[in-house]
Amino acid sequence: MQSAIEPNPLAETNGRYEKVQNLGQGSFGFVQLGRSNNSELYAIKFLKRGAINKYVEAEILNHSKLRHPHVIQFKEVFLTSEYICISMEYATGGSLFHYVQKQGRLKEAVARWFFQQLIIGADYCHKRGVANRDIKLENTLLQVVKGLPLPLLKICDFGYSKADTMSVAKSKVGTLTYMAPEVLVNRDGKYDGKVADIWSCGVMLYVMLYGRYPFDSPPGANVPKAAEILQMLDKMVGMRYTIPEGVEVSPEGRDLLQRMLLPDPASRIQLEQIMVHPWFTTNLPPEAATMNDSYLRAPFPPGHQQPDEIRQLLEGAKQHTAANASVPMANVMTAPPEDDGYDASIENAIREDLLTHGKSSGNMQLQHFINAHSGNMQIS
Ligand SMILES: Nc1ncnc2c1ncn2[C@@H]1O[C@H](COP(=O)(O)OP(=O)(O)OP(=O)(O)O)[C@@H](O)[C@H]1O
Fold first, then answer.
1. pTM of this structure
2. What is 9-90's CATH topology?
3. Could you state, in order of their start, the residue ranges of all structural domains in the chain?
4. How far apart are CA 263 and CA 179, in angstroms?
5. How far is CA 198 from CA 133, 159, 263, in A?
6. Where does the signal peptide begin and end (predicted)?
7. Which of 96, 173, 281, 330 is 20 to 30 A from 230 via CA?
């Protein structure tokens, strides 16, 4: 039975979707399982219409551009009086985070199975011009497929409403553990998101193989202190990640990890190189190596929502609240508001603090790294 406090926005869709159950709550919205009027199940993410800003918009548009077996399939965006709703493929197997947590750590062959799919999915996204910027075990879902010994991996969550990197740090300390060092210190967003994704994939591989994070995240508080982030950054820059005792990983696996977790983004291994690395190519089905060429060429099916249509829908949603949501979209197209509602002051304060602490730490290697990547060459 529907509880009074559980929202059911799908009731407004005139039977297009009906709510089946709640799937979960994120920092910026909630997700429900819905059944469409042709009896298919979809995961539907609900974000408050007022929460739409340029980041949410970009991320929804990015997701809509992707069509690949290792990316959660975007279906459509629609509005209810209070929410913007993103309908997408429903992954039945939970997140890879829970899978790894349950097993403690994964055998090398199992980790490779997931990692190969992660990299092929990321390569497709990058070739479509989309960097995920929030790759982590929690954002990779599993699809159980009959006849397959292990679930398929699906990249999901294109950073809806949290594309700004330090906003992630503020909202969820855990995400910091996947963040590339150049992202942590960067002031002006001029890092390469695709190269940063490779770092995050390296952290994921490490966690799958060792059952722990390579660089401990700052403890406790919701908003981590700059000094704590600095300790983590120091380990990243010095490549001091812990190798737990008693865990055997092949030399090829360790070599790949080391190349992915290189602090200097320019020296970090690239996706094309990962895809020919001997650890990666072991047991790789021959068709997997070239599958992205076909997916990049494949046309979208008829009826696929076009970017302009999505933009128009979002624009309408931004302009109109519950009270006047029924105004036809054609009547609500006006210039986007200047203020997108995003308050960067806390993030900026943490970052400035971090850079100041780094500057005065006396650690030359750290200072050098910060100089090179903060976007402010005056720190010396
Ligand atoms: N396509 C999907 N299929 C199945 N479950 C999903 C799907 N998308 C999201 N979920 C589940 O819904 C829950 C909420 O997801 P959501 O993306 O809103 O937040 P989150 O990623 O858990 O947290 P945050 O927003 O803070 O990163 C999660 O448990 C997630 O696994």
1. 0.88
2. Phosphorylase Kinase; domain 1 (3.30.200)
3. 9-90, 94-295
4. 11
5. 10, 16, 11
6. none
7. 96
Decide: 138 in ligand 1 pocket, CB within 6 A.
yes
What sign does the dihedral 265-271-273-279 (CA atoms) show? positive
Distance 140 CA to ligand 1 centre (A): 9
Q: Is the CB of 156 under 6 A from ligand 1?
A: yes
Residue 110 Cα to ligand 1 middle (Å): 23
Q: Which of 5-14, 221-230, 281-290, 339-348 has the lowest mean pLDDT?
A: 339-348
Q: How far is the CA of 372 from the centre of ligand 1 (A)?
A: 36
Alpha-carbon distance of 286 to 61, in angstroms, equals 32
CATH superfamily name and code, 94-295: Transferase(Phosphotransferase) domain 1 (1.10.510.10)
Provide the 8-state DSSP code for 221.
Answer: -
Is the ipTM here above 0.90?
yes
Protein residue with least CA distance to atom 24, ligand 1: 26
